[in-house]
Amino acid sequence: MVEPFGQVATANEPWVRALAREQAGGMVAEDLLYAVGMEALWRCAQRFDAQRGVQFRTFAQWRVRGAMQDVREREMRFWRTSAGAAYGSVDALDAAEVDGAPALEWLADGAEGPAEIAERALTSQRLAAEIGRLPERWQQILGLYYCEGLSQSEIGRVVDVSQERVGQILRRAAALLRVRLGADNAVVS
Q1: Is residue 150 assigned to a domain?
Q2: Which terminus of the chain is more solvent-facing, meaning fewer CB atoms within 10 Å of its CB: N or C?
Q3: CB 52 within 8 A of CB 73
Q4: Which residues are registered as beta bridge partners of 101?
């Protein structure tokens, strides 16, 4: 271990905060990335060996960035699955798969109990219902982005609007969904 974690955290907290801010956006909250980054920093502090001649920041940077990226990808897969349910039907979430496993099982991630699984399912249903209340064009753009995986420029060509307008609609839809689902909801933060 390099030094007491309090010292490591104090010295590296601004760096982890900056990484979280850099990677946040879309549907992933900065606070979630910050928490994951600090946890990865803690794990790095436990494993670091100064005798190997590498600076701590060099040792930690790829692990912290990687942990944040893993969470970002997981949240985006969740959003794509949830948006897919709204785009098709709420029941589609039950039939959807993520990484070859049923979506609801994947959402549970093996660590949650029945109450947490039910809460996630309820959140997914609420999200699907709220997406269904959005203007039809917004629903189409969300579907093309999160379900079909099209880029903003490709979507712009399909719906005959600029790439900037597509980005605007995606940001506005996310903000509106955050408000409708509650600001404390991590799914749309």
Answers
A1: no
A2: N
A3: no
A4: 98
